């Protein structure tokens, strides 16, 4: 099964994608994680995108489309969860072309809806496992054993440089101006469902699984 998670920064896309990856064996394709890996490696691409990401703006469509195109063909039999792509109308159009070319169907587009006031709070309390990227929160989601990642057992955690109140505003503006316009397209194709992203993390997972299971039965 191939799914796309949509929602503003802090909506819980990464948190839910990691859970689906663990439970169903699908591969999470997080463009944010891919770009952060490029930065950490010191590559030319990483250097090119650093300032854009830190300002909360979107990296160019050409770069993002090439990044996803290099991954998607190999995942035909495995299934994937797109997290962070597409984020603009040209990216959504390019995704369609890529999927058709590879004979892949997008089974579900799931939008996580969250009130804007809570997003800054969620993002400013976020920290992630340095090794596997699992996402935690100072108040809402601490690892079960303090200081140890629940997913991979690693003990080192990091905070993102773009997780501050000022950059979050720019990221939200980019979401409203450039990403929300892709929603009507997916609505017309009949694959879009909305999930209440304000609910507790386990409940959000249950709602997503209900959508996935409905289509199986
Ligand atoms: P990216 O990494 O994709 O960031 P984002 O979309 O801003 O999303 P986040 O990772 O901030 O949020 P999330 O929805 O995954 O929330 P999470 O699960 O962590 O992109 C970063 C940058 O890369 C962009 O700004 C851009 O520059 C560039 N980029 C990436 N893709 C691009 C593209 N396609 N085109 C152009 N540029 C691109 O949850 C947040 C926190 O809340 C966590 O602490 C979590 O524990 C907590 N939480 C989650 N769910 C709940 C819940 N239900 N209740 C309470 N707390 C919760």
Ordered list of secondary-structure elements with their pairings:
Elements: E1 3-6, H1 13-24, E2 27-30, H2 31-41, H3 44-54, H4 61-72, E3 80-83, H5 89-102, E4 108-113, H6 116-124, E5 126-129, E6 135-137, E7 157-158, H7 165-179, H8 183-188, E8 192-196, H9 201-216
Parallel strand pairs: 1-3, 1-4, 2-3, 4-8
Antiparallel strand pairs: 5-6, 5-7
Helix pairs in contact: 2-3, 4-5
The structure holds BIS(adenosine)-5'-pentaphosphate.
Residues 7, 9-15, 31-32, 35, 52-53, 56-59, 64, 84-85, 87, 91, 122-123, 125-126, 135-137, 140-141, 171, 197, 199-201, 204 line the site of BIS(adenosine)-5'-pentaphosphate.
Describe the structure.
The protein is α/β, with parallel strands linked by helices and 217 residues long. Helices cover 49% and strands 15% of the residues. The strands form two sheets. Strands 2-3-1-4-8 form a five-stranded parallel β-sheet, sandwiched between helices. The radius of gyration is 17 Å and the shape is globular. The two termini are 13 Å apart. The protein binds BIS(adenosine)-5'-pentaphosphate. BIS(adenosine)-5'-pentaphosphate binds at residues 7, 9-15, 31-32, 35, 52-53, 56-59, 64, 84-85, 87, 91, 122-123, 125-126, 135-137, 140-141, 171, 197, 199-201, 204.
């Amino acid at each position: 099964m191939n799914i796309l998670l949509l929602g503003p920064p802090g909506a819980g896309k990464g948190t839910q994608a990691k859970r689906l990856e663990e439970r169903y064996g699908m591969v999470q394709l997080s463009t944010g994680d891919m770009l952060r890996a490029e930065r950490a490696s010191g590559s030319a691409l990483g250097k090119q995108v650093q300032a854009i990401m830190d300002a909360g703006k979107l990296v160019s469509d050409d770069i993002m489309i090439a990044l996803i195109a290099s991954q998607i063909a190999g995942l035909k039999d495995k299934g994937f969860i797109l997290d962070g792509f597409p984020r603009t109308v040209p990216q959504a159009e390019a995704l369609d072309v890529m999927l058709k070319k590879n004979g892949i169907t997008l089974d579900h587009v799931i939008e996580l809806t969250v009130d804007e006031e809570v997003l800054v709070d969620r993002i400013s309390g976020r920290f992630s496992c340095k090794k596997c990227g699992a996402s935690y929160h100072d108040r809402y989601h601490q690892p079960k054993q303090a200081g140890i990642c629940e997913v991979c057992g690693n003990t080192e955690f990091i905070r993102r440089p773009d997780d501050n109140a000022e950059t979050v505003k720019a990221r939200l503006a980019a979401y409203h101006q450039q990403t929300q316009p892709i929603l009507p397209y997916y609505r017309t194709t009949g694959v879009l469902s909305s999930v209440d992203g304000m609910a507790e993390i386990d409940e959000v997972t249950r709602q997503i699984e209900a959508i996935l299971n409905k289509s199986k039965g």
